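Q: Hi! First time doing this. I have a protein sequence and I read that you can turn it into a structure. Is that right? Here it is:
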Amino acid sequence: MKSLETLEMMDISKSFHGVRANDAINLKISSGEILGLLGENGAGKTTLMNILYGLYQPDSGEIRINGRRVTIDSPRASLEHGIGMVHQHFMLVQNHTVIENIALGYTRAPGLFPQKKIRGHILSFSRKFNFDIDPDKKIWQLSAGEQQRVEIVKALVNGARLLILDEPTSVLTPQETRDFFEILERMRAEGQLIILISHKLDEIKNLCDRVTVLRKGQVVGHADTSGLDKRELARMMIGRDVVFSFSREKMPREEKVLEVSDVTVDGDKGYPVVKGVSFDVYRNEILGIAGVSGNGQRELVEAITGLRLATSGNIVVNGVDITNQSPRKIHNSGVSHVPEERIRFGIAPNLFLYENAILKQHHQKKFSRRAFLAYGRIKAHTKQLIKDFQVATPSINVQTKNLSGGNIQKLILGREIADRPDLLVASHPTYGLDVGATEYLRNQLLKRREEGGAVLLVSEDLDEIFELCDRIAVIFQGRFMGILESDDPRRTDIGLMMAGTKELEPKDEAHVARHCH
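A: Yes, that's right. Below is the predicted 3D structure, encoded as structure tokens:
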């Protein structure tokens, strides 16, 4: 087939169980163009791109490549037409290695020993993109960020002419993001076609030539990005003005809630990935941990919340040593957890909403009588939760997997905050969410701080870290490169600290420690 030069989606409609996800959508992209696709969670962006990638079939409408109608009935057919996609929720086989996953999706793999050829491709793209990918690691051993990099390489190895990117920069440092943008711009100059699904309005504005905005399954506008500002984009997307900066008043630090002392944690391969980390979190404080995915954040959070054993050191909450206690005991000690991978660890996808609303709390007296669950109370609690936390759902009697990512995250945060925990551990709470959901969740974290809670926030979004946190710890290869007050002028060095090229001097650390206690 001739090289892909133009692609059109014409009057595409798709419904699930009577709910219309896409309603007569039109979009067009040409060679040498980056098209931004913008919309709230649940607006229909991912459904539309899954149709283009052959995972879903449209109920009506057609796809044209170079003016000729085509049928894309599988991801393989999509790849044959030169379309590659990097999904937000990764399409990887957890028990296989990186190289095996890429071999599985490699359309031009030789029959014998395909891995040798693919290894060269992986290493070449890893160097080009400054990705640190070990081809022999199993997928389950990788962080969410590392898994996303594998997906990006998988699409490029297949020679995708049109690349669909779903939130591609969520896991990169500012420097890596700049490098990645340069590569995308080079690809555009070479005539590639790129569709960028992003909730980062700056990203859409600075990188894309045009933007198509979806709301509730319909196109509400097409625009050239050159004449648009962020507020206009946000207004198109959610139909109202959005607050882009949050008022975080300075609050006096109250008593210590969390004390982590010289904690070391082993990774999945059995060697230390958190190396002697120490820090405290106080009431009325949000402490942020900034770093590129895969530097020990996940393992540190799992040790604090009881999902992984610490090999040495102590974790103390409200003066009680909780080191290596069970997740239930730690939860009962006043610790709540919003996990990094919300579908995998935050919910039971096949259970109803009202069942997920009381996970970890079902044994409490308010939800059970002797050996039986009190469904009346549980459902009343769930209805209040979805009202308070603005969870968009047709009913509390639907399977939780049918909600959009933003609404699942609101449900998890509501469940974890409902008991007013002393310590809230939030890992990437706004990852992949639209500006409306992000604004709402950030306000909830600030509200918990004002109510006297302590919040440990792990995020790769530096804007989020700067807006919400009272202090910022930077992690690199399992060690803290330093802990800074939010108004410290050395904040400008955080990108360098995340890359491991700068560390606070010991005297600076002593100053920071004195300032913090």
